[in-house]
Amino acid sequence: MVYAGDRKMTKPILKTETALNVFSDIDRYIGRRIGDIRRRRKITAAQLAEHLGITAERLKQYETGARAVSARLLAKIMEFFRVPAAYFLDGAAELALCEA
């Protein structure tokens, strides 16, 4: 385990690769769909991030599945691209069944 500072703390800080593993295939799927539509529409990560009020680094984390996208943020993304929720969620049901 990796600990903050020189002394051991009661709560360890997880290494990045370990933290990435806790996110589901659904998070990665939705993130991939966000990145796909952004690139197809020729929108830079910086442009979309600015519109959403987040950093480009945070957007990259969503697109790679390293972070789960909140429903509120997903709604902003749907509004920006003018696509229905189905664009991001179609195909996710099969992944949910696999995880259960």
Can you characterise this structure?
The chain has one domain (16-94): lambda repressor-like DNA-binding domains (434 Repressor (Amino-terminal Domain)). With 100 residues, the chain is an all-alpha fold. The protein starts with 15 loop residues before the first helix and ends with a helix. The protein is globular. The protein has helices at 16-20, 25-40, 45-52, 56-64, 71-81, 85-89, 92-99.
Quick description:
The chain is built from 7 helices and no strands. With 100 residues, the protein is mainly alpha-helical.
The CATH topology is what? 434 Repressor (Amino-terminal Domain)
Principal-axes shape call? globular
Query: How many individual β-strands?
Result: 0
The CATH level-2 architecture is identified as: Orthogonal Bundle
Largest sheet: none
CATH superfamily: lambda repressor-like DNA-binding domains
* Percentage of residues in helical conformation: 55-70%
Mean pLDDT: 80
What's the CATH first level? Answer: Mainly Alpha
Number of domains: 1
Unreliable parts: 1-22
Helix tally equals 7
Order of helices and strands: HHHHHHH
| C-alpha termini separation | 29 Å
What is the CA-based Rg, rounded? 16 Å
Q: What structural class do you assign from the helix and strand content?
A: mainly alpha
Strand content: under 5%
